Amino acid sequence: MSTHAKRERLLLADLLEASGPDAPTLCEGWTARDLAAHVVVRERRADAAGGILIKQLAQRLERVQAEFAEKPYGELIQLIRTGPPRFSPFSLKQIDEASNAVEFYVHTEDVRRAQPDWTPRELDPVFADVLWSRLERMARVIGRKSPVGLVLRRPDGRTAVAHKGTPVVTVTGEPAELLMFAFGRQDAARVEKEGEKDAIGKLHEAKQLGI
């Protein structure tokens, strides 16, 4: 059984702890404390976490997340480290790995890349391929709101079509960088864009794609 999600969970918890509750993140309007509260609510409060995707539940999610953000910061960190309770779907290793390897990687980078002196992590090839595999499967969902045709391409030439259409913008980068780009962290993703200038501009203005 792969343990990428478990490793990324612990890395995220360690980084949040070291950064402190008031550290900035790439999530607009969120400090490290807010991000920690989000992670805990997502795993432990299914009654509210639905608001991440369902607009009708968004206010409940906001309220519950604010309540968790008021908890002692160290308690939030410990809840992240120990993982979800038994009744949570995330307690199943298969679901944890499928759902959280990407989630925790992106949020770890949300904290890391909010610092002015950040440098890219060197990922082992196996984990890079895991991120790419997840990105390939999610590409059409991620790109469904793209205002232009969108192709994601690795340096070795492997591609994933995120949105069919013209004009086409091809975004090239390592899997982790493409993932950050696709999850709306365009300004912090080290990628190269090829295409018509106007099309690239429209894609940049879109910021968040389909997630």
TrEMBL record:
GO molecular function: metal ion binding
Protein name: TIGR03085 family metal-binding protein
Cross-referenced Pfam families: MDMPI_N
Residues of the Mycothiol-dependent maleylpyruvate isomerase metal-binding domain: 12-49
Organism: Streptomyces sp. NBC_00119
Coiled coil residues, start to end: none
Superkingdom as given in the UniProt entry: Bacteria
InterPro entries reported in the protein's UniProt record: CHP03085, DinB/YfiT-like, Maleyloyr_isom, MDMPI_metal-binding
